[in-house]
Amino acid sequence: MKGYLVLFLWIGGMSGLLGQPIRVACVGNSVTYGAGIEERDLYSYPARLQQLLGENYLVRNFGKSGATLLAKGHRPYTAQPEYRDALAFQPDIVVIHLGLNDTDPRNWPAYRDEFIPDYLRLIHSFREVNPRVEIRICLLTPISHRHPRFLSGTRDWFWEIRQAIETVAEVANVPLVDLHPRLYERPGLLPDGLHPNREGAEILAKEVYAALTGDYGGLQLPAIWSDRMVVQREHPVCVQGIANRGEKVKLTLNEYEAQVIAGEDGRFEFRIPPLETGKKYRMTLSSPSGSYQFSDLVAGEVWLCSGQSNMAFRVDQAAPEEQSLYRQAAGSSSAVRLYQMHPKWETHAVEWPADALESVRNLSYYHTDGWQIATPQTIEAFSAVAFAFGIMLADSLGVPVGLILNAVGGSPTEAWIDRKTLEFEYTDILHNWLHNDFIQPWVRERAAQNIGAAAPPLQRHPYEPVYLFETGIRPLAGYPVKGVIWYQGESNAHNIEVHEQLFPLLVKSWREAWKEPLPFYYVQLSGINRPTWPHFRDSQRRLMETVERTGMVVSHDKGDSLDVHPVYKKEIGERLARWALHQEYGYSSLVPSGPLIRQANRMEGHISLSFNYGDGLRTSDGETPRTFEVAGRDGFFYPANVTMEQDRLLLTCPEVKAPEWVRYGWQPFTRANLVNREGLPASTFRIKIE
User: Fold this and answer.
1) Measuring CA to CA, which residue among 201, 56, 213 is closest to residue 136?
2) Do the Cβ atoms of 226 and 213 come closer than 8 Å?
3) Of 395, 546, 554, 642, which is the most exposed, with the fewest CB atoms less than 10 Å away?
4) CB count, 10 Å around CB of 361?
5) CA-to-CA distance for 242 and 81, rounded, in angstroms?
């Protein structure tokens, strides 16, 4: 800190040289002013900044509620007495946070072209009164979807103004302070959707303090870095972290050495050439503010395993005969390594205590023990599906396989999608989510039970839209992975049309987070006595046809008519591995899927069905193919007679004179029995006859 103080004494001009406090002017609108904060003189962000900086600084609040940056706006800051007072203060440091009120329809639509020039003039005016002044301009604090003008323009103009502020920083050669991220993921700190409360103002003060002093809390790495880690082979190793500004960060990785300087925002990054597979590594990372040491690092294939309870379903919950096979596999191979993100609070049918609610509000939902080598003991609490997937990959590829597990029982698709994607592409699902019909009633009821009646307004919950992206995906996004396996859908099966929009958004959201077109292989729902499930299974099949680089595993043959958690998981994991091996690793002769309907043709006297992956069509039990049905335009379905002819099926149905539709496996719990030569089951489908 002493070095930074000297720096600011110099930047602060005569104030510092004469031993006077460094004058800091906080210029802005109502967020700077502290609107809505009781005792704002003590708890607004400038007041808290003064306490953080201490007696060597003199911080003044020149915030004006409703002020615009635009000189022709409805309340231009430069026309206010607060602006004149700020100039008269002759500050050594100016922190400017303006632009929120410029999203008003009275301002941005008409005067957007003047925003950058007006901002540059504002900066110049402070440089005129003190040529040595240090200027910091802030990227905007969030505007929530709850704001009344959000959809009428504010949402879009907000991001345009953010981009304009970034341009101002480049042109004026001033540093940026990003006040957006930490509040964006904490909507409860914006009670009215715009103004931070006392806790939010504290966060702003700490962000500005770090920007002014360079003190970002010392050397920090994401939690996923630990001993026994698997990094993605044939991919540069990306080591990203935070240190204090200007610190030299040194890295050694066996014989490899490198050094970088932490940037203006404290961030640093090493990009190391791909590691050699089959070799173990030791890594040391150090700076003046801290150090890390990791051993037994290896390169291999890393997969993210996510979804809800059927992905979270543990090895020790599987069928007894499968458990013994899992333990045997873990005992004979050390090639699979596990990184499990455990929910701190399970979403069981209970009311959470106050400390759980606080932890969830603070986005502290997961905990981890770091990377573990798979043994008969460490796999017990790990995903049965994911471990079966990993064992098959490791055996086939002969390389280490790292599995990252962050599944949460009962979680809906929307909880795993990032906030900005939903704000722009499915805003309605964000509103009043505990009373929102886009979200499954069971999901809302269980969340309300966990939260309880005494929870604060805007209490967070892992089932809330975007929550699991913010706590379970964003912390991983800088860590290279090969792809994703996904088992989820039970908590969205009530509304197929909504899921058909959410699932592509989920895949897009994660691919954007990793900045790569990650392959995404998922499990179709199995069978249980829930009437929407046949439609949902068919919808999942059709999504595979429209979302690129995806593949679907059929699981209805392993379903349980009375239990949403079937206990046979090993084959499901292996079917996911088939997709990965076939698509990602060049195993072209390995059939990745059971029969997937391609076409239904009306021919003389019968209907002909053809399939992808339909070589060697047969039945799983040697019986006649079951559950094929035919309907005419009236929608009355009748059982069909089925004949197998090489790799196609021929259907007849005397009850339907003019057939238009064929369906298969169209029962909530189905005993459909069509498989291919590999014994892989055919998907539920409904198809129009050509």
Assistant:
1) 213
2) no
3) 546
4) 19
5) 40
Which amino acid type is present at position 490? E
Strand-pair partners of 599: 610
Backbone angles phi, psi at 539, to 5 degrees: -65, -40
Burial class of residue 452, CB neighbours in 10 A (0-12, 13-18, 19+): middle
DSSP 3-state of 508: helix
Predicted confidence at residue 618, as pLDDT, reads 97
- What's the CA gap between 103 and 162, in Å, rounded? 11
Q: Could you give phi then psi for residue 115, rounded to 5 degrees?
A: -65, -50
Measured CA distances, 635 to 87, 152, 642, 655 (Å): 77, 43, 20, 12
Rounded distance, CA 313 to CA 569, Å?
9
- 583, two tokens: 């698509």
Average pLDDT over residues 624-629: 97
List of residues 6+ apart from 91 with CB closer than 8 A: 23, 24, 25, 60, 126, 130, 133
Lowest mean pLDDT among 12-16, 200-204, 379-383, 502-506: 12-16
Asked whether 508 and 540 are in contact (CB, 8 A), the reply is: no
Does the pTM exceed 0.85? Answer: yes
Q: How far apart are CA 404 and CA 447, in angstroms?
A: 25
**DSSP characters for 279-326?**
--EEEEEEETTEEEEEEEEEEEEEEEEEESHHHH-BGGGS-HHHHHHH
H-type alpha helices, 413-531: 419-425, 441-451, 467-468, 496-514
d(CA 51, CA 59): 9
First to last CA, the chain: 75
